[in-house]
Amino acid sequence: MPTRRVSYELAEAPLAPGEVAIVGAGPGDPGLLTLRALSLLEQADCLVFDRLVSRDVLALANPRARRFYVGKASRCHALTQDETNALLVRLAGEGQRVVRLKGGDPFIFGRGGEEGEVLIAHDIPFRVVPGITSAQGCAAYGGFPLTHRDHAQSVTFVTGHAKGDGELVLDWGALAAAHHTAVFYMGLANAETISRQLQGHGLPASHPVALVERGTTPQQRRVITCLAELVETIAREGLKPPTLIVVGEVVRLADSLAQPAPKAASFAEGETLALVGERMAL
């Protein structure tokens, strides 16, 4: 049975020349894009995208849009943040309609606020489109909620990445509170600190932990462990970024609520685009 594209109308002005849209691409599955994000992708003259934006999301953008890869991995940046800021300013100054595409949500550990400040300083109009952050996507596709009346009445999203090479300094007492879920982004390198500090602030060694690698994509892996075995589990399973660390009693629901693994998106021949960025002199 042929698929039917659902028509839609959004009550917003089209992307104007010289305007930047800071858009959340979600955690990977293109089906989790908002309609507004899809509309702006179709309008873009230039696409500035991060490392965690999936190939299938990029395939939905205007095929004539120039693509600029500005991805960042640990100690390996295609462009520095200052260079990315300058690129956005330059493209907008050329009258391009620019979509700045970020994995997850641009205002949750996405540095969207910093880029917005730069655009304001240069009198460049911009809009922000939220996306599903990886904590939401990984939990739903991993088979457990982030909150539950019987297990967790609050949830905290935490960056597990220390600035520079320093110690990860967090409010560990608050994160170890009862009936609470803590979600660590970019936390693999500091897993030992996370395990030690949470146990030191009162959580038992048996407290459940979920590790979700490449959540919502066909490559998703979900591993259930506990605080005492967190570091050993990461090493044994060979988990790599991006992997989310979820600590909380809600993880015990994973087996009963688990969903089928995500399937690869399917596009017509020639539609899928390679992750090739265009780097130009700033």
From TrEMBL:
Pathway: Porphyrin-containing compound metabolism; siroheme biosynthesis; precorrin-2 from uroporphyrinogen III: step 1/1; Cofactor biosynthesis; adenosylcobalamin biosynthesis; precorrin-2 from uroporphyrinogen III: step 1/1. The lineage of its organism: Bacteria, Pseudomonadati, Pseudomonadota, Gammaproteobacteria, Oceanospirillales. One of its GO terms (molecular function) is oxidoreductase activity. GO terms for biological process: cobalamin biosynthetic process; methylation; siroheme biosynthetic process. InterPro entries: 4pyrrol_Mease, 4pyrrol_Methylase_sf, 4pyrrole_Mease_sub1, 4pyrrole_Mease_sub2, CobA/CysG_C, Siro_Cobalamin_biosynth, Uropor_MeTrfase_CS. This is uroporphyrinogen-III C-methyltransferase. CDD domains: SUMT (cd11642). SUPFAM superfamilies: Tetrapyrrole methylase (SSF53790). Belongs to the precorrin methyltransferase family. Residues 20-230 form the Tetrapyrrole methylase domain. Its EC number is 2.1.1.107. It comes from Halomonas nitroreducens. Keywords: Cobalamin biosynthesis, Lyase, Methyltransferase, Multifunctional enzyme, Oxidoreductase, Porphyrin biosynthesis, S-adenosyl-L-methionine, Transferase.
